[in-house]
Amino acid sequence: MKLYMNRASPFARKVRIAVRELGLTGRVQEADTAVSPVAANETLGRDNPLVKIPTLVTDEGDTLYDSRVICEYCDGLNRKSRLFPAAGPQRIAALRRQALADGALDAAVLCRYELALRPEALRWPDWIAGQKAKVFGVLDLLEAETGRFGEEFNIGQIGAACVCGYLDFRFPDWNWRSGRPQLAAWFERISRRPSVAETTPP
Amino acid sequence: MKLYMNRASPFARKVRIAVRELGLTGRVQEADTAVSPVAANETLGRDNPLVKIPTLVTDEGDTLYDSRVICEYCDGLNRKSRLFPAAGPQRIAALRRQALADGALDAAVLCRYELALRPEALRWPDWIAGQKAKVFGVLDLLEAETGRFGEEFNIGQIGAACVCGYLDFRFPDWNWRSGRPQLAAWFERISRRPSVAETTPP
Predict the structure, then answer these.
(1) Cβ-based contacts under 8 A for chains A and B
(2) Residues 48-67 of B with CB under 8 A from A
(3) Phi, psi angle pair for A175, to nearest 5°
(4) Domain ranges of chain B
(5) Which chain B residue has the Cα nearest residue A67?
(6) What is the spatial distance between Cα B15 and Cα A108, in angstroms, rounded to a whole number?
């Protein structure tokens, strides 16, 4: 299988962590791919009209996106699901936490585009403040939920780890750990997991 | 259950169509909710730190987001899933199509924010062009896939219908039907379905 990815993308990292947790590294070729919301990428665009990473081309030639779909597909390749609980309340709880993390990542990536991609004269402080407030709201909820994580590392925790890692990478000045000791301690512990350590942004 | 929604939101529409397809209208109270990425909504923010609609508060008091998670939850309330195929290739195909549609909606909503919310002096034509290209790429792929839809109306087709409806609502000048006769004919037919007709934007 071919995975369009790059090391800076937090959504690609979700998939790369999942692939490692599931023991699928030998079956997935990671293809470094540059994407930008204001520039075409014809190679990737032929497979995914959204021109986003991660995108997975399966051994059957099917093209899958986005990170949620690819992670669920990969989980289904093993006999027993490990990252997505079976139907029922535990599954919905994991999916809700994944959506929470994805929402924070969407907001953080929009901040990044605003601050690093958009011409300086066209930046809008209200937009940055609004997106940043979403990220911090999510961090506060994760801080409250971390105590219930235990040893669980399903798609919800993978998403949470990618949020923490992305903020360390792109927004170290936001000091996300401040006032969130439980989340900070959890992320420190989980960062030693090989799947997380190997996929740390550059 | 309480559903934070408004009639203009294409993601809320996905849930509202799902609720109707599943015969759950009697169990869901639709609460009209104004949201903006640059303004707080304290009521909604208490339930969902992303401050986005749709958000569902279940009868058990759990709060669910985003549209994908709520639709899957609602589908699971019936004895037999109808909108999300069971595990396997058909499920992944439906989820991939939902992700395709969601991606187009994300891009279209970002265009809307840029053109209707951001102060005019801060708008960036390259951003609009890039997001619009994603939407049209998705429309072209849907045009190619429509012939295989048949009578199927799962979460993938629900997403596709919400894309078409949102473009009619917010971007009629984009003429999405032009050069896409199959998608246009499918959307005309599907628009007569009560779940779709009742949820048409204002």
Answers:
(1) 120
(2) 49-52, 62-66
(3) 50, 55
(4) 2-77, 89-193
(5) B99
(6) 25
**Residue-wise DSSP of B45-113:** HHH-TT--S-EEE-TTS-EE-SHHHHHHHHHHHSSS-SSSPPTTHHHHHHHHHHHHHHHHHHHHHHHHI
| Complex-level ipTM | 0.97
Within an 8 Å CB–CB cutoff, is residue A14 touching chain B?
no
Contact B127 A134 (CB under 8 A): no
Give the model's pLDDT for residue B44.
95
pLDDT of B80 reads 83
Mean pLDDT, residues A131-146 taken together: 98
* Average pLDDT of every residue of chain B: 97
**Which fold does the domain B2-77 belong to in CATH?**
Glutaredoxin (3.40.30)
- The CATH class of the B89-193 domain is mainly alpha
Q: Quick check: A68 contacting B, CB < 8 Å?
A: yes
Torsion angles phi and psi, residue A85, rounded to 5 = -60, 155
Pairing of strands B2-5, B29-32: parallel
Predicted structure pTM score: 0.98
Q: How much of chain A is in helix, strand and coil states, percent to nearest 5?
A: 60, 5, 35
**Which of B36, B99, B130 is opposite residue A37, by nearest beta carbon?**
B130
- For A23-44, what is each residue's pLDDT tens digit? 999 999 999 999 999 998 999 9
Q: Across-strand partners of A169?
A: none
pLDDT tens per residue across span B102-127? 999 999 999 999 999 999 999 999 99
pLDDT for position B137: 97
Measured CA to CA, the distance from residue A149 to residue A153 in angstroms comes to: 8
Q: Which two tokens stand for residue A146?
A: 């971390």
Chain A contact for B43 (CB, 8 A cutoff): no
Q: Does A77 touch chain B (CB under 8 A)?
A: no
Residue of A nearest to B60 (CA): A89
**A77 vs B89: CA distance, rounded Å:** 11
